[in-house]
Design a protein that fits this description.
alpha/beta, 8 strands, 4-stranded parallel sheet, two-stranded antiparallel ribbon, 44% helix, globular, single chain, 222 residues
Length: 222
């Protein structure tokens, strides 16, 4: 990429952000992934206007869209973190406790809780909407490779874990799209169990770690 092209792309990104609604969208996406319908409800925008803003951000290389692993008719909008590496966060967050949720509470949410414990002093827990019988061996090995331990952990029913005031982060499309799951944030992380390979678990771990690196400094004890 030549310098002229880089300057043009940089200018396009600044132009895309030079609008209050689009800047608000980017701020929301800096925390988690949102479906267009969720953004429409949160921002109280008509669908055609939201589509215009999302298309502008996508053309500027600021966002991508991925199909849900649960409902294939649904998509999630994701921020390209590398495109905004020098953009400061603007939305302060307070939480008594962070709870990570996936369907089985056997891989992604367990890894997220372990990573959070290392990154923040805010208490953490995890739970599943349909808990598995055990933690996936692939998750255990992945945690071990990165100096974390899931020893003594076991899948738990989300309803038995949740407390009032929890800051809930779903890391699974299926759990997020269940009607009774009230998430504060959603991270659309592909299920490593489906492939069952070391690479799949490693990819999920890296994605979760990057999200926690972004989120942890923004969360203060309530």
């Amino acid at each position: 990429m030549n310098s002229e092209r880089s300057i043009e792309e940089w200018a396009a990104r600044h132009a895309a952000l030079a609008e209050p609604v689009r800047l608000r969208i980017v701020d929301l996406l800096s925390l988690g992934d949102w479906s267009p319908s969720e953004l429409q409800t949160r921002l109280q925008l008509p669908s055609n206007l939201l589509a215009h803003h999302l298309n502008t951000l996508e053309r500027a290389g600021l966002i991508t869209r991925d199909r849900s692993e649960a409902d294939k008719r649904r998509s999630y909008v994701r921020l390209d973190r590398s495109a905004l590496s020098d953009l400061g966060a603007t939305q302060p967050i307070e939480a008594h406790r962070v709870v990570f949720v996936c369907t089985g509470n056997s891989a992604r949410s367990q890894l997220a809780a372990a990573l959070w414990s290392r990154a923040s002093s805010i208490p953490v827990a995890s739970g599943g909407t349909h808990p598995a019988d055990r933690i996936e061996p692939g998750a255990v090995e992945t945690a071990k490779r990165h100096g974390l331990s899931l020893r003594g952990k076991h899948p738990q029913q989300l309803a038995d874990v949740l407390m009032a005031g929890d800051f809930v982060v779903t890391v699974c499309d299926n759990a997020h799209e269940e009607p009774d799951t009230a998430a504060t944030l959603h991270w659309s992380i592909p299920d490593p169990v489906r492939l069952g390979t070391e690479a799949a678990f490693e990819s999920a771990f890296e994605q979760i770690a990057a999200r926690i690196t972004d989120l942890a400094p923004r969360v203060a004890a309530a």
